[in-house]
Design a protein that fits this description.
The chain is an alpha/beta fold. It has helices spanning 13-25, 46-50, 62-65, 117-120, 127-143, 149-155, 165-171; strands at 4-9, 29-35, 39-41, 59-61, 72-75, 78-82, 87-90, 95-97, 100-103. 33% of the residues lie in helices and 23% in strands. The chain is elongated, with a radius of gyration of 21 Å. The termini are far apart. The relative contact order is 0.17.
Length: 172
């Protein structure tokens, strides 16, 4: 029987789970996972970075996840997918041919049409966003030293918009 080649774009929860499941269930599948990061960011623990934990604690190297599998992990940014030619084109100039392509590109922060929320808030969907929020919180505490008690109380009020796991953990 011929071997099917599956290209998976994205090294998050969806891409990793798909690659692991496909290779575990069939010997007739060759998987190439293309990710722009060398690691998987464990999003449920990003709040820990905001509260001072090292970013290394929420990163798992992709090579470690796939070391005992037949998944080829490629570090590249995807520029486009040529569907008629069945090829994924990377910014490195590489082309990744496939029989089936899975686009597992993640998610974006939802602002639920709340006016100005995107403009005046911090997201927490990546290590970089979590580090920005951590830095902002530290700046707020440093700035308030010279303020009056009333002003400190105002300056150190934080609003968490969102009641998912990250919002609940940050609130706690």
């Amino acid at each position: 029987m011929n071997q099917w080649h599956v290209a998976i774009v994205g090294g998050g929860f969806g891409g990793i789970r798909t690659a692991l499941d496909l290779t575990a269930r069939s010997r007739n599948v060759h998987v190439t996972l293309v990710s722009d990061k060398t690691h998987f960011e464990y999003h449920p623990a990003l709040y820990k970075i905001v509260t001072g934990t090292s970013p290394l604690e929420v990163c798992i190297p992709l090579i470690d996840i796939f070391k005992k599998t037949d998944v080829d992990v490629v570090y590249d940014s995807v520029l486009s997918v040529d569907i008629p030619q069945k090829v994924v084109i990377g910014s490195s100039g590489s082309k990744y041919h496939y029989d089936f392509c899975v686009l597992a590109l993640g998610s974006q922060t939802a602002y639920y049409s709340i006016p100005e929320l995107e403009k005046y808030s911090f997201g927490c969907k990546s290590i970089n966003e979590a580090l920005r929020l951590n830095s902002h919180i530290h700046e707020m505490f440093e700035r308030c030293h010279a303020e009056s008690a009333t002003q400190k109380e105002y300056s150190l009020r934080f609003i968490v918009a969102g009641g998912g796991a990250t919002g609940v953990e940050l609130s706690a």
